[in-house]
Design a protein that fits this description.
Length: 225
């Protein structure tokens, strides 16, 4: 079957990474992602590799503008519009939407859908043929009704949310490495702009994998007679 098989999670993280001086390339013949230091990368021949760059700030800004256009609660809408004016817009927007848990959750889903559309457009422009499409939701979440938004704002008023939401824990899921990975990636996305010069989502993905692996080993040892 023609076309490439791509690690979609890794590619998405590459587009979110803002680590300085760390280049990433997609290999046209295999679909593998290569980073600086990879011996296979060589001189990054453009006929063999295509550069993967983080989503530009101007595109991220448009994502915020598009989200604001869907907000139905006028007070929050005004606050978000004020937040994105001038230097520090990304941090102020994150702080403003973070005070309202439901809208914050919708923002992340909204942003993910637009980011994934951006990635697929990039692949098309780069003339990358795919063997299969990713199982992604490409539709931004619908605008909630004014009544639902007002209710969620009232319930969360005065309680800023500064971290990523903890994953729900249900019976049978305790100690699930997948839940840990979900939590760490959500935290990385929430704070990526603030800490982009230290680490990005890719670092958290590796951390989650390492911690999950160590936890599985510990759990196996703990049940041995």
């Amino acid at each position: 079957m023609p076309g490439l098989i791509i690690d979609w999670t890794a590619l998405e993280l590459a587009f979110e990474s803002h680590v300085p001086d760390q280049r990433c390339f997609l290999e046209r013949s295999t679909g593998a992602l290569r980073h600086d230091g990879d011996p296979e990368l060589g001189d990054a021949d453009p006929t063999r590799f295509v550069r993967v760059e983080a989503v530009p700030s101007r595109e991220q800004y448009r994502m915020m503008e598009r989200f604001i256009a869907t907000v139905t609660h006028q007070a929050l809408k005004d606050a978000l519009q004020d937040a994105i004016v001038g230097k520090g817009a990304f941090r102020r927007f994150k702080d403003a939407v973070g005070r309202h848990p439901e809208e914050r959750k919708r923002w992340f889903a909204f942003r993910d859908a637009l980011l994934r559309r951006f990635i697929l457009d990039w692949l098309k422009t780069a003339r990358i043929e795919l063997q299969e499409m990713p199982d992604w939701n490409l539709e931004p979440p619908m605008t909630p009704s004014p009544e639902a938004t007002a209710s969620s704002l009232q319930s969360g008023e005065g309680e800023p949310v500064t971290g990523a939401p903890a994953p729900a824990v249900v019976e049978g899921d305790r100690g699930d490495p997948g839940a840990l990975r979900t939590y760490l990636l959500a935290w990385a996305r929430a704070h990526g702009e603030e800490y982009r010069y230290l680490f990005g989502p890719a670092a958290f993905a590796r951390l989650a994998d390492d911690l999950g692996h160590e936890f599985i080993i510990y759990r196996k040892r703990s049940v041995l007679p």
